[in-house]
Specification:
alpha/beta; globular; 33% strand; 6-stranded mixed beta sheet; 5-stranded mixed beta sheet; 268 residues; 14 strands; single chain
């Protein structure tokens, strides 16, 4: 576990938590009553079926405070707001993957309710959290990245590919004339896979290689993916850190080394 905290950190000051479940790792953000981050625990190797033990052992999770759970998993669907009906969540997701018999469904509005991102967790995972916390909200992990892109849409050009990397996964979005055209999550065990999916997306969108702009978020400090390397394949490419909607108490050090998108921006 890697620990990041303010100089005056006290676990008793925790007013709420944000819990980010990634496919291969996990992060816990403790926030004070002003929603400033006071402490972060990052587990670089984590298995979801060990959540029961983590809830008991992690000091940040010892208090019963409101918790937001962000679930990064391929089991999600984007549904236009005008077509969305909460009672059809299982139907939306059955097109994506096989679902467990007992599932807890949830949805998050995006782009002023023009879009809903629908997802689920296994009932067992939900019960594990309910055993410790009395107030829980579930969100699909992509809602942070997507909400940021919708906020920034008027700074986008006509053909945009935008990437958020987290571990050996990435979210890949295409915007055409500032409107979302495609979005998905992909495995990227190698740099070649990273390139492959971007190039396939550019081809599918019929974007011009000379005009499309590729923007990459979520790179840790030490990464084989660099701007110079990417410029060998893309005419317009940039690696950015998102504008921040997260505040930190004084004393945090090296938190940006993680490269996590949510260090800067979280869906609120």
């Amino acid at each position: 576990m890697k620990v990041f905290k303010s100089d005056k950190f006290d676990v008793e000051d925790t007013a709420s938590l944000s819990l980010f479940l990634y496919p291969e790792f996990l992060a816990v953000f403790a926030k004070d009553q002003n929603q400033a981050n006071t402490g972060i625990h990052f587990y670089p190797d984590f298995e979801w079926d060990k959540l029961d033990k983590l809830i008991i052992s992690d000091p940040l999770l010892k208090n019963d405070v409101p918790v937001r759970v962000y679930v990064h998993q391929p089991g999600f669907s984007l549904v236009p707001g005008v077509l969305f009906a909460p009672e059809n969540e299982r139907k939306y997701l059955e097109f994506v993957q096989d679902l467990p018999p007992q599932a807890h469904f949830f949805h998050t509005p995006l782009d002023s309710n023009n879009l809903q991102i629908v997802s689920f967790v296994d009932e067992k995972l939900k019960k594990s959290l309910q055993a410790r916390f009395s107030e829980i909200s579930f969100y699909h992990g992509a809602c942070s990245f997507l909400s940021y892109l919708f906020k920034e849409r008027f700074n986008l050009i006509g053909q945009e590919i935008l990437v958020n990397i987290f571990g050996r996964k990435m979210y890949l979005a295409a915007f055409t004339d500032q409107e979302l055209s495609a979005f998905n999550m992909f495995d990227i065990p190698s740099d070649e896979d990273f390139l492959k999916y971007i190039l396939i997306m550019i081809k599918q969108m019929k974007y011009s290689a000379k005009h499309v702009r590729v923007t990459i978020y979520g790179l840790p400090q030490k990464s084989s993916i660099t701007e110079d390397w990417a410029k060998e394949y893309f005419h317009h490419v940039r690696i950015l850190t998102p504008h921040a909607n997260q505040n930190y108490s004084h004393g945090f050090k090296r938190i940006k080394d993680l490269g996590l998108f949510e260090v800067s921006w979280q869906y609120l």
